[in-house]
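FW: tagging you since you asked about this chain on Friday. Here's the raw sequence from the shared folder, copied in full. Didn't touch anything.
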Amino acid sequence: MKKIMLTVVLAAMGMLLQAQEVMKVELKKGETVEYKVDDVKRVYFDTVTPSEEDDIKTDYLIMFVGDKEDIVGTVVSATSENDFVASVKGKTVTANHAGATFLIVNEKHPVIIMVFSLKTSIPDPVLKWGEPKDTIKAHHKSGSIYKDDDQTLIYKDCGDATAIGYSFDKNGKLSGAAITVPSSKSATFLSYLTDRYLIYPEKQSDGSYLGFDGYDEEHITTVISYNPSDNMCLYLPYSKFKKESESRKNLSRMLKEIVFEDE
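HL: got it, structure written out here
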């Protein structure tokens, strides 16, 4: 048995990955795999693996949305912790949306997957739900502050975004966010969003479209509402969206309609 710590530094890639909780998956032999992504674009992978050797040569893949790459070595089985970020069929990995996940190959070999978007001129809002304003300020890296009061924080001139705003609840915790771009960037904005979210094709009553950062309720943390008429996108934590939406059944219907498995 051996302990492995793999650190991948990706500071030059230009995409801010939001911090995630440590994820765990149990291997069939009783071992535990853990990973997390921090805000300086490092991946920490900490695991104990069985001692027997295999011929898998891939420990991590750095990909862009839409890429396909093969795992090097003899692949008997492979599963993804989050198909929304990257899926695997046979030995071929497909990068679906920007983010980080991992595969378990041959029931024991972990492979980190980092997926980036080429659409980086529009910065990502800091979606640290439930965190205080000071934390958001510490992680927001673009533009200048336009407004700052008890329940609002707005930055202007954020790259290709006109403004990025944050709202806070009565306890001063992040409860919503918004981003707006000029009309000249509307096509770029849509590509930016589809690289990161699954957009539900049915227009809502207010003319907006909903999007999710996962294929299922287990993985969804953020829901967006994109309105092409004003080039604005609103962000809500999934927990808040569930309370305010018509029903969980309605959300499940949307997910079933927009998620398609390969035949």
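FW: Residues 1-51, 258-263 have pLDDT under 50 and may be disordered.
HL: agreed, and The chain has four helices and 19 strands.
FW: great, closing this out.
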